[in-house]
TrEMBL record, chain A:
Lineage: Bacteria, Pseudomonadati, Pseudomonadota, Alphaproteobacteria, Rhodobacterales
Full protein name: Probable sugar-binding periplasmic protein
UniProt-annotated location(s): Periplasm
Keyword field contains Transport: yes
KW Acyltransferase (keyword) present: no
Signal peptide start and end residues: 1-24
Family, as annotated: Belongs to the bacterial solute-binding protein 1 family.
Domain of life: Bacteria
Major localisation: periplasm
PANTHER family: ARABINOSE-BINDING PROTEIN-RELATED (PTHR43649), BINDING PROTEIN COMPONENT OF ABC SUGAR TRANSPORTER-RELATED (PTHR43649:SF28)
Coiled-coil boundaries: none
Alphabetical list of Pfam families matching this protein: SBP_bac_1
UniProtKB/TrEMBL annotation, chain B:
InterPro entries: ABC_transporter_permease (IPR051393), MetI-like (IPR000515), MetI-like_sf (IPR035906)
Keyword Membrane: yes
ABC transmembrane type-1 domain boundaries: 76-291
Family, similarity comment: Belongs to the binding-protein-dependent transport system permease family.
Lineage: Bacteria, Pseudomonadati, Pseudomonadota, Alphaproteobacteria, Rhodobacterales
SUPFAM superfamilies xref list: MetI-like (SSF161098)
Keyword Thylakoid among UniProt keywords: no
Spans through the membrane: 21-46, 75-102, 114-134, 162-187, 208-233, 268-291
GO terms for biological process, alphabetical: transmembrane transport
Entry keyword set: Cell membrane, Membrane, Transmembrane, Transmembrane helix, Transport
Protein name: Binding-protein-dependent transport systems inner membrane component
Membrane topology, as annotated: Multi-pass membrane protein
Principal location class: membrane
Organism: Oceaniovalibus guishaninsula JLT2003
From TrEMBL, chain C:
Domain ABC transmembrane type-1 per the UniProt entry, residue ranges: 83-275
Parts of the chain that traverse the membrane: 16-37, 89-107, 119-139, 151-174, 195-216, 256-280
GO annotations of cellular component type: plasma membrane
Protein name: Sugar transport system permease protein
BP GO annotations: transmembrane transport
Similarity remark: Belongs to the binding-protein-dependent transport system permease family.
Mode of membrane association: Multi-pass membrane protein
Keyword NAD set for record: no
Subcellular location: Cell membrane
Domain of life: Bacteria
Protein's UniProt keywords contain Transport: yes
Keywords assigned: Membrane, Sugar transport, Transmembrane, Transmembrane helix, Transport
């Protein structure tokens, strides 16, 4: 009976179906860069492949920062019609690799020398069991604060370096009748804030113990209680209409001078540049106070679906193109993120981009580059969402800090 | 065929098979793609399926986990509140508009499509507009303030305790016009003779409606009930577009819960368990209703 | 019917009725109005100001962009090419589910047999299945049938999950149709199809309108099936619209989004406005009379 059950295991059946589906010359790419500049940036890759005679079948699916695309991916794989290459994040890559669905990219990686140029923390996801299974495109760092330079100057505020200075600065803004912190109340945004607060409150080791290793003692600790108290403090600096607001509308508040700061990943930069502001002059970018020297990251990667035991020539060409320094620069200048390779020139990047690249290289060397919990690079999806539940409930006033820390430990335990 | 013509008894037998044969494809498809899949889901709810279906039996564990999640309780309570208010208001507004429109109204031809059109739009289309309208910072409240009504407050969508009512408002907006059409059709279908007779007996308008017209609308009420109930249970796009389940998780419904566990959280087993509970609840309400309804028609 | 007493109701009452009707018209039009107004503004006016206000600068640029130049995936094609995909999917699916619904309704009312009520009950209950639970098993089934990622696959899916409702409509309609006529025809020796074709179908216009309107609304607006079961070359317009409006970390051009949303809704809107009259007539002549 057991043998039959094992024989029926869907994953195997799927793999059998997947084999031999690949179209002869084209690559079908599932991704969620579906509109505006980021989609246009991907076109660089398309043209690069076209020059090599490889057609691009575009399969964009937007929604929920890739969640919708992952649902579609599951339907596609289950139906035995998996796409050639798929944009993926963090633990999704690991989960699919565990199902044995991803192609081994080792030959391409060796030939092109990926090993020394990609930071270890990212390689932890690009590789599974010693095999390269994904090609990282970019690194977003998520612990940035964006500020309106004029607003800060008018209120005599220096760029804050510590938590206390940050609080003082926000108090000053509040007294001046300006919303100190522009924030959108969506679970992932609350969690992005939480990542930075935990890192700032407890330092890198605590962040790792609590949000990556899920140590129950760290999750329900005094430090965690303090982190939740700081979240409550931040809540006091957010306007009343925050809930449900899209992150880019929060950016607009900073751009229009209605708010002083926004805590958001580097994709926010595009909004500021799009509004005709200059980085480093009209708007400032700096690390969340207390997290200088550390970087929490989110990296988009492309994984190749196994289409018959080995990586096809088209897939190899695709992976190689993704990792080429030219594409990494061209794409990331538009996208706001920084290249996943740490060996490319920062010449074409603006002030914030240059700083981001330097920070990344430094954090990678110091071992202070951490996966972002909010963006699926610290814990699997089930745990991530369980943490979201607690963080969001606390931020909306459902729990006090003490209860939140206890709930956090319980929720993580149930989800594991 | 030729052979059959010579033997009429076989032709008759063949004839008598035709209706069944015509119904068979639909019935088979529904059996397989609806009931087969329901069985499959029930099976999954007893397994440790996570990212993809797995066949490792774990008994009732998913159900016990499900009922430990406060989040699920919220979703179920929300559905109760939402479905009750949504169905009540859609029916009441639909009936009222139908009765009013039935008073020889000038411009009925213009008003009717205006009431009906929201049903034609999906919430991918109207979600953002609703979200803005309900947002106190940029929508109705803000506009009222600009017009000088400073004390006007309408911030339900931002309030944990009231956000679910904004979902009701948008849902009623979408379907009440449709319900209106059903009642209007019902009203227009009532035999004029009965009404004349009643009026001769001296019944006033109010009594006419209460005693004679509303009881005659019973079939319309029943159709409205089926359609509204199925829309209420399936409401998903609406919540995603309007509140994303927030503030916090305050407007989560079973449909959004199930989707999020099955797909976003990679806990397909728990998602399947929640789907089974949902289906059982629907069955508990619908089966007696369908039974009574179909029995009666037979008689 | 119209209550004869209507003329007796006072002027005040009639004024009140008109007022209520107009207020509701306003309520129904509001979200659409917000969409239209904002689709005619430059983006800076939207993010920088009052979203409910009329445009200061009127522009048609967002409409042009949404139709033909907006970036959807890697290609700047706008929504235009996706319309064709939607039409290829919706037309056969609507036609098939309506035809089969009609035949089913006919069999279930005029050719009763043991267990027909049970079959109808099962079909009706199938309307209540939440679509999210069928995604994975359906994907597998389409794979086995060789229809994964194709338009025929989508047609099949919409057909299967629409059949419950169309059967309900036609069954209720035909239930009110005089059975004596069918009996008489049978005695005259008319067969199953002849009776359907000659006797029932000619008077089915209104209910066909209801079924078609209902199905088109559901199928054209469907997102879940479209996104899960379509391939790169068969994505319907709702999926493209979602790609346009829900891009995760890109700049959000709300004016273009609204223009795109109105485009995507135009076919169904048109059906409602043009065929709305038949719709009420169709409901009237059967489905709500039971």
């Amino acid at each position: 009976m057991n043998a039959i059950a094992r024989g029926l295991k869907v994953s195997t059946a799927i793999l059998a179906l997947t084999a031999g589906i690949a179209a002869a010359q084209d690559v079908e790419v599932l991704h969620w860069w579906t509109a505006g500049g980021e989609a246009a940036a991907l076109n660089v890759l398309k043209e690069d492949l076209a020059a090599q005679g490889i057609g691009w079948e575009d399969m964009p699916v937007a929604g929920g920062g890739g969640e919708q695309a992952m649902t579609v991916l599951r339907a596609r794989v289950t139906s035995g019609n998996s796409p050639t290459a798929v944009q993926m994040l963090g633990f999704d890559i690991t989960d699919w690799a565990r199902e044995g669905a991803l192609a081994n990219l080792n030959p391409v990686a060796e030939e092109n020398g990926w090993e020394p140029v990609v930071p270890d923390a990212i390689k932890a996801f690009s590789k599974y069991d010693g095999e390269w299974i994904a090609a990282p495109v970019n690194v977003h760092s998520t612990n940035w604060v964006w500020a309106n330079a004029d607003v800060l100057e008018e209120n005599g505020i220096e760029q804050p370096e510590t938590w206390d200075e940050f609080v003082t600065a926000m108090e000053t803004l509040q007294e001046a009748g300006i919303t100190p912190l522009a924030h959108g109340g969506q679970p992932w945004q609350d969690a992005t804030l939480f990542d930075a607060v935990v890192l700032s409150t407890g330092g890198g080791d605590f962040y790792k113990a609590a949000l990556i290793d899920l140590d129950p003692e760290a999750l329900n600790s005094d430090t965690m209680v303090e982190a939740f108290e700081r979240m409550a403090t931040l809540r006091g600096f957010v306007d009343d209409n925050f809930s449900g607001r899209d992150w880019n509308l929060a950016s607009a508040m900073v751009i229009n001078g209605e708010a002083g700061f926004q805590m958001m990943g580097d994709w926010a930069k595009g909004e500021f540049l799009g509004a005709g502001m200059t980085e480093g002059e009209d708007f400032l970018c700096f690390r969340f106070p207390g997290t200088q020297g550390s970087v929490t990251f989110n990296a988009d990667q492309f994984a190749m679906f196994d289409q018959g035991g080995e990586v096809s020539p088209q897939q190899a060409a695709f992976a190689q193109a993704v990792m080429s320094p030219e594409f990494q620069v061209a794409f990331n200048v538009v996208k706001g993120s920084v290249p996943a390779r740490t060996d490319v020139s920062d010449e074409e990047f603006g002030a914030c981009g240059k700083k981001g690249m330097a920070d990344l290289a430094q954090a990678a060397a110091d071992g202070t580059l951490y996966g972002s919990m909010a963006h699926g690079y610290a814990v699997p999806a089930s745990v991530k969402n369980a943490i979201f539940d607690v963080v969001t409930a606390h931020f909306n006033g459902e729990f006090d800090a003490q209860t939140a820390a206890e709930e956090l430990a319980t929720a993580v335990e149930i989800a594991q | 065929m030729n052979a059959a013509r010579h033997r009429p008894d076989r032709l008759t037998r063949l004839q008598s098979l035709v209706p069944g044969l015509m119904l068979a494809p639909s019935a088979a498809l529904v059996l397989l793609f609806v009931y087969g899949f329901i069985l499959f889901t029930i099976y999954l709810s007893f397994t440790d399926s996570r990212i993809l279906p797995s066949y490792d039996w774990i008994g009732l564990e998913n159900y016990s986990k499900l009922f430990r999640l406060s989040h699920w309780t919220t979703a179920v309570v929300n559905l109760g509140v939402f479905a009750a208010l949504y169905m009540a208001f859609s029916t009441a507004i639909g009936l009222m508009l139908a009765i009013f429109l039935d008073q020889k109204i000038r411009g009925e031809g213009v008003l009717r499509p205006i009431y009906l059109y929201p049903m034609a739009l999906s919430f991918i289309v109207t979600g953002t507009a609703w979200k803005w309208f309900l947002d106190p910072g940029i929508g109705l409240e803000h506009t009222m303030h600009l017009w000088g009504w400073e004390s006007f407050r309408f911030g339900w969508i931002k309030d944990r305790d009231f956000a679910i009512y904004t979902v009701v408002i948008a849902a009623v907006w979408q379907t009440s016009g449709f319900v209106m059409a059903m009642f209007l059709a019902g009203l227009r279908g009532i035999d004029g003779e009965i009404l004349k007779a009643a009026q001769m007996d001296g019944a006033n308008s109010w009594n006419l409606y209460r005693r004679i017209i509303l009881p005659q609308l019973r079939p319309a009420f029943l159709s409205a009930f089926v359609i509204l109930a199925h829309l209420a249970v399936k409401s998903y796009d609406l919540v995603i577009a309007l509140t994303g389940g927030g503030p916090g998780r305050a407007t989560e419904l079973p449909a959004t819960f199930m989707y999020s566990y099955t797909f976003s959280r990679n806990q397909m087993g728990i998602g399947a368990a929640s789907a089974v509970i949902m289906l059982m609840t629907i069955a508990a309400i619908m089966v007696p209703y369908l039974y009574a309804e179909l029995r009666e028609k037979k008689a | 019917m119209t209550v004869e007493g209507a003329s007796r109701t006072g002027h005040a009452a009639r004024a009140l009725i008109y007022l209520v009707l107009l207020l509701f018209a306003l309520f129904y039009l509001l979200p659409f109005g917000i969409m239209v107004i904002n689709s005619l503004k430059p983006l800076s006016e939207i993010t920088g100001g009052n979203m409910m206000a009329l445009p200061r600068t009127w522009t048609l640029e967002p409409w042009r962009a949404a139709w033909s130049t907006a970036q959807i995936g890697v290609s700047p094609t706008g929504l235009a090419p996706y319309f064709w995909n939607s039409i290829k999917m919706a037309v056969p699916a609507v036609a098939l589910s309506t035809i089969f619904g009609a035949v089913n309704g006919y069999v279930l009312t005029k050719w009763r047999f043991r267990g027909d009520t049970l079959i109808f009950g099962l079909m009706l209950f199938s309307c209540f299945i939440p679509f999210q639970i069928v995604l994975i098993p359906m994907a597998r089934s389409l794979g086995i049938l060789g229809l994964a990622g194709t338009t025929p696959g989508l047609v099949l899916v919409h057909f299967v999950y629409g059949i419950g409702f169309t059967t309900l409509y036609f069954r209720n309609y035909y239930a009110a149709f005089p059975t004596e006529l069918v009996r008489a025809a049978m005695i005259d020796g008319a067969g199953f199809f002849r009776i359907f074709w000659r006797i029932l179908l000619p008077s089915s216009g209104p209910i066909i309108a209801v079924s078609v309107i209902w199905q088109i609304t559901n199928i054209w607006n469907d997102f879940l099936f479209g996104t899960s079961f379509a391939d790169f070359d068969s994505q319907p317009v709702t999926v493209a619209l979602n790609n346009l409006v829900n891009s995760s970390t890109g700049v959000k051009e709300y004016n273009v989004h609204f223009a795109g949303a109105i485009y995507a809704a135009l076919p169904t809107l048109l059906v409602y406005v043009v065929a709305g009259r038949y719709f009420v007539r169709g409901l009237m002549s059967g489905s709500v009379k039971g």
